[in-house]
Structures are given as structure tokens and as C-alpha cells.
Write a structure and sequence with these properties.
There is one protein chain. This protein is mostly helical. The radius of gyration is 24 Å and the shape is flat.
């Protein structure tokens, strides 16, 4: 028996689903600007382009503030590049506590 993929075959449906997921995750990685990394895309940050982008944005904000100071009640937005980012920041405290020697459990060999 020879397998001929059709639109209704379950294998084809699974393959189409993973292509859909991959495409949308990839496009989000290259198009969506994240607020936690100062409104640059993860791809721009990974490529090291975030420093130039944020410096250009800072210059635009400063020019806008000089041209119309009445619109600004305080300082401009913070456009300094941020440091390392973790996916699960709540786990950092758990890891630091473990490394600091606060182990209450003795490990056996």
C-alpha cells in the first residue's frame, strides 16, 4: 500500500499545525516589540541592534522635548539598554538561596 498525503490525513494535519505554529512564533520573534526590553524585538536584541535603536529613540524624544517643552511634564522615557533578562525571574531568588548554602536537606551519596 502506497501512502499518498491528502488534506484530510491526520499526518498532514499535524504537519500543517506545526508549520503554522513555527511561522507565527517566528514572526512574533521578529515583529513584536516587548515592553520589558524597551520596545525592541527579541531578534533585534539578539543581534545587538538594540543599543543603536534605543539611542536613536532617545535622540528623537530629546528633540521633541526641545521643540515643545509644554507637552512634557517630566523626564523622557528611559531608553537605556537593559541587562540580562531571565524567562522566570522568580526562580532567580530560589537559585541564589540554594547557592548561598541555606540548604536544610543534606544530600546523601
Amino acid at each position: 500500500m502506497h501512502f499518498i498525503p491528502t488534506y484530510s490525513s491526520w499526518l498532514n494535519q499535524v504537519e500543517r499545525f506545526f508549520c503554522y505554529l513555527f511561522f507565527h512564533r517566528l514572526s512574533r520573534h521578529h515583529a513584536h516589540r516587548h515592553s520589558s526590553i524597551r520596545y525592541v524585538t527579541p531578534a533585534q536584541r539578539h543581534a545587538g541592534e538594540d543599543h543603536q535603536i534605543l539611542a536613536a529613540r532617545h535622540a528623537v524624544y530629546l528633540r521633541a522635548k526641545e521643540q515643545n517643552p509644554a507637552r512634557w511634564s517630566g523626564a523622557t522615557r528611559n531608553w537605556n539598554p537593559i541587562g540580562p533578562v531571565t524567562l522566570n525571574p522568580e526562580r532567580d531568588s530560589v537559585i541564589k538561596t540554594r547557592l548561598a548554602g541555606h540548604n536544610s536537606q543534606v544530600l546523601a551519596a
